Amino acid sequence: MPAATLTVFHLSEFLLSWAFKRSDFSRHAFLFSWPYCTAMVLALIEYVSEKHISWPSKQHQGAVHLGLLLIFIGECIRKSAVITAGRNFSHQLTHGQRLDHVLVTHGIYRVVRHPSYLGWTIWVMGTQLVLQNPCCFILFGLLCRNFFKRRIAIEDAQLRQFFGAAYERYQRQVPAMG
Ligand SMILES: C[S@@+](CC[C@H](N)C(=O)[O-])C[C@H]1O[C@@H](n2cnc3c(N)ncnc32)[C@H](O)[C@@H]1O
């Protein structure tokens, strides 16, 4: 199940990037960065070592079901953001404004300003619930919060530069991650 979850996530990220013919499309669209792979190896180590010492929490079916639900909800939020933003979405932050870059404020972007980050956070927390990894659940939560806090500050500043008053208005009206 965890392998299937990872395959669906990474393959769909790559295929959507290819389908929208995004300007930053490359093998990096699989989203296997070093920090991410390191985090997943840590999760695997926690899982295997706790399973080996018969950690009691590894037997909670409720946690597995809740984790699967979070994975599903996270994927839906993330993919609806990727599809709604279309070619305006890019895995890397853009440094100059592209000519075809338009501000997206409809669909899921009407409800939350950074839906793909919200979806990814929910998805990754779900993976740790399925594995019943208490340490990585907390660690990944803290890492996501710090990483996205910094990234959102940079991205908001760039988008204010690109779209001026329209983005400032959007930023006032719509919360960052819910
Ligand atoms: C990884 S995507 C993340 C998009 C958004 N932060 C989210 O969580 O759905 C980053 C790229 O999307 C662009 N972007 C973010 N929000 C946007 C919006 N509302 N309209 C158009 N482009 C946006 C940024 O300029 C950046 O190049």
From TrEMBL:
<dbReference type="GO" id="GO:0032259">
    <property type="term" value="P:methylation"/>
</dbReference>
<dbReference type="GO" id="GO:0005789">
    <property type="term" value="C:endoplasmic reticulum membrane"/>
</dbReference>
<keyword id="KW-0949">S-adenosyl-L-methionine</keyword>
<keyword id="KW-0472">Membrane</keyword>
<feature type="transmembrane region" description="Helical">
    <location>
        <begin position="120"/>
        <end position="143"/>
    </location>
</feature>
<comment type="similarity">
    <text>Belongs to the class VI-like SAM-binding methyltransferase superfamily. Isoprenylcysteine carboxyl methyltransferase family.</text>
</comment>
<keyword id="KW-0808">Transferase</keyword>
<feature type="transmembrane region" description="Helical">
    <location>
        <begin position="29"/>
        <end position="48"/>
    </location>
</feature>
<protein>
    <recommendedName>
        <fullName>Protein-S-isoprenylcysteine O-methyltransferase</fullName>
        <ecNumber>2.1.1.100</ecNumber>
    </recommendedName>
</protein>
<dbReference type="GO" id="GO:0004671">
    <property type="term" value="F:protein C-terminal S-isoprenylcysteine carboxyl O-methyltransferase activity"/>
</dbReference>
<dbReference type="InterPro" id="IPR007269">
    <property type="entry name" value="ICMT_MeTrfase"/>
</dbReference>
<keyword id="KW-0256">Endoplasmic reticulum</keyword>
<dbReference type="Pfam" id="PF04140">
    <property type="entry name" value="ICMT"/>
</dbReference>
<keyword id="KW-1133">Transmembrane helix</keyword>
<keyword id="KW-0812">Transmembrane</keyword>
<keyword id="KW-0489">Methyltransferase</keyword>
<dbReference type="InterPro" id="IPR025770">
    <property type="entry name" value="PPMT_MeTrfase"/>
</dbReference>
